[in-house]
Amino acid sequence: MRNQIAFLVHGKYALFTDPLTRMGGEKESYQIPTYESLVGVTSSIYWKPTLIWVIDQARVIKPIQMESKGTRPMDYNNSFKSNLSYVSYLRDVSYEVKAHFEFNKFRPDLSADWNENKHYELMKRSIRAGGRRDVFLGTRECQAYVEPLTAFGENPGAYDDIPEINFGLMFHGFNYPDQTGKDQLDARFWKASMKHGVIDYPRPDTCEFIRSNVRKMSAKDFNDHNFTYVDREMEDES
């Protein structure tokens, strides 16, 4: 697939949670990455509103380990006060990720930017450079690093020999207005599992469980003042 990439992402810590329930207090990471967190990683590597990233698969390379830390987050109701809470992070994580991009049909105003080959070339350069923006795993304090892969599955994984592990109901991701055509933010959930160390994520439009009506939201407008077409980007980099 011409628009598909594979990369390795790794870091000292990760915190994959349901964003709707992590406003304050104790936090505990899911055992595997959420779909939304990996969309965030790929978007940090390369993103434009022209594209929608679809996460196809992820492989867990290192064993799942947890570590709890005491933190002093800002009080949600009083910015001058801090609280003591414990956060359970994943420790020493590494994942192979396979993803592809599709053009956002809900943004016909950006159709002049639908040049698959040029986006693909810029995307490969961005992976080799370690991403265009800071990469993190689930939350800002969990800094991460990306590296290109020759092929998905080239590294031995910690769970390659285990037929299946089920993780129950898990946050999948958000339905954003500019990807659905509706002025509404929705949250998706799914029954997560891993087979021989590989997580096959369902596409957002086929995710079984939907929690709707998170809040009203409108798609952002893009114009010549806040958007650069890929043809211009290629000219600037050449």
Structure, described:
This protein is of the alpha+beta class. It has helices at 35-45, 116-128, 177-180, 230-237, and strands at 4-14, 27-28, 51-60, 66-71, 85-103, 144-148, 165-175, 184-194, 198-200, 209-216. The chain starts with a strand and ends with a helix. The mean pLDDT is 88.
Structure class: alpha+beta
Strand element count: 10
The fraction of residues in strands falls at 35-45%
Proportion of residues in helical segments = 10-25%
Q: What's the overall average pLDDT, rounded?
A: 88
| End-to-end separation | 25 Å
Low-confidence spans: none
What sort of overall outline do the alpha carbons produce when their principal axes are compared?
A: globular
Q: What Rg, in angstroms, do the CA atoms define?
A: 19 Å
- Helical region count? 4
Major beta sheet summary: 7 strands, mixed
- Pattern of helices and strands: EEHEEEHEEHEEEH
In brief:
This protein has 238 residues and is α+β, with helices and mostly antiparallel strands. It has helices spanning 35-45, 116-128, 177-180, 230-237, and strands at residues 4-14, 27-28, 51-60, 66-71, 85-103, 144-148, 165-175, 184-194, 198-200, 209-216.
